[in-house]
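Before relying on records like the one below, remember that each one covers exactly one chain. Contacts with other chains, cofactors or solvent are not represented anywhere in the record.
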Amino acid sequence: MVVHGFQKTTLLDYPGHLASTVFLGRCNFCCPFCHNSALVLAPDDVETMEGEEVLGLIKKRAGMLEGVCITGGEPTLTPELPDFIKRIKDMGLLVKLDSNGYKPAVLDSLLSAGIVDYVAMDIKASKENYANVCGVEKIDIGRIEESVNIIAEKAPDYEFRTTYVKGLHTEDDVRGIGEWLAGDHTYFIQNYKEGPTVISPVYEGFSEEEIHRFKDILLATMPNTHIRGDYE
């Protein structure tokens, strides 16, 4: 398996755990606000490592680490992912998977096998605005809905999260997400930040007042809503 990036130690990517982070290339979306532009637009140009090498590095740190976060790009596009995760689990480590939810069958298989401990799924926008925010012409929203249901039913622990971007999201998106995901899901509001590796660096985040307004709207249907990062 080809790995497109490896961070030996992080306290941020796996909530509550000291972890390593594995980055996999390619994505089936092209969100203009994505900070991992190279992994989405030109993964073949990114310096890579062999999966065996990465597993060796993780094994050396297994006594110190608590878990491994696998992110991207979109990890569920990598056919070797299940075996890679199993080998991490054999080291006694927790596994967190970041996903956009567009491969529900893969998520179902991994969760049914009991090899993923935490799933973080990005909810890109309200259903009506999903394709636009994902940077694609059209989208099968049913696949996203299926992944939401699979994760809520089968994941030992999980979160849904949305990065809110001024120019792409409106208050209608906030209300739409709140109506869609209504329930006791753990949900995080993330405010967009500009950066040098963004696919289309033409956007900005919302103000503190706006972000807290979004939280108030979402709390009406999702009582486990939180702000992550600035303004929390």
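The radius of gyration is 17 Å.
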